[in-house]
Prior knowledge:
With about 180 residues, the protein is mainly alpha-helical. Helices cover about 50% and strands about 10% of the residues. Strands 2-1-3 form a three-stranded antiparallel β-sheet.
Amino acid sequence: MSARERIAGLLWWSVPSGTTEEAKALTEQMLDAYRAEVTAEFSAWLVKRAREHRVKGPQYAKQADVIGMLASKVQRGAVRPNNLLSLPPQGGPEDAVELRTEVSRLQAELDKVTAPPVADIEYGIRLSPDAPKAEVLHYPAQSRSSVEGRLARHRTGHPEAQLLRRTVHYGEWTEVAS
């Protein structure tokens, strides 16, 4: 499963919409917009690098042309993150190592930003809309349908009872001295 699929799987739950299909479509639109922003940033950086090489002098013109072509390919969507560094170096400009290092750094930054936190959805029931936020009956690790069944039973005595949902993020396990 790709990072995009993992993010979409977690994000569509929190998108307000009338149907699951609408929520999933809106999630895909949001992820497409985010990818376009990241691609635009990377492409702008490449264009900047090409200009910097042109300023260095005519001996760097060929390198500037190559960087400019790469920027064009990124803008068109022809370069994908998984195949950017797959080819062995063929020799060439002396700053190719610097460029690969920067691309690796940007890829690591992108991975860090797009890596979804480990999260889950928990459901609860508030018996009265006037009750404080702390007064929620929690049902961790239960499905929405089972909590909806409990809600129906609670509504016999509390007709204003509300179904609540929250996203819970889980961190790494740490050892505790006993």
